[in-house]
Amino acid sequence: MLADLKEYRPAKIDFVLDDKVKEEFKDVMVLCKGAKSSKEVLKVFREKFNCLFPEGELATRQYDAHEIAMIREEYCLKEENDVPKRKQELQETLEAIKAMKKNAEEAYNSILLEIADLAARVKEGTTDIKLSSTETVRIALNGYFLFYSWVDGEMKLVKTQKIPDWDRGGLWSQEDVNREAMKELFGIEFPEVEKPAMIEKEAQDNDDDLPFGDED
User: Fold this and answer.
1) What's the pLDDT score for residue 212?
2) What's the whole-model pTM score?
């Protein structure tokens, strides 16, 4: 375990040196052989060499077999105990991120849709208004349904609908009455309503059934 190596020091230290350097300085790899203490050697350096005494300098050394065994035990335990737990945490985090991403995308798309809807409403420039059921009327006139409603103190035309061709035949009499009312009340003339062919034929047949026929 790494904790066991905190104060550990190999019995023999093997420093890392380049092979070229080892070859070049092979004769001075160890100085003052046989010295009993560092004081003897340092005295030689002080007296014979022009040297400095650096502080905090680091040198690289090799791990010994014990250190390698302890470090290997450390990472084996971590691989056995910590890796599965970290992997699970990673998967949960990725799933959470995926969910967050999805929610963020949905929120983003939602606000874009809201903006597009509002922009479309502005471009359209219109909206619906609910009409009073007691102050709104519909009349058939000149091929249209006309909707009038009491708005802002006036009876206004607020909506029109084209009367389908299949429905006009049954509404011709209403249109005719309304056309006459417009002329009588407001002096506004609309084209006379053309009677459906069936109604014309029935009227003609009724005239032919009169006892005395048509008079010249």
Assistant:
1) 53
2) 0.49
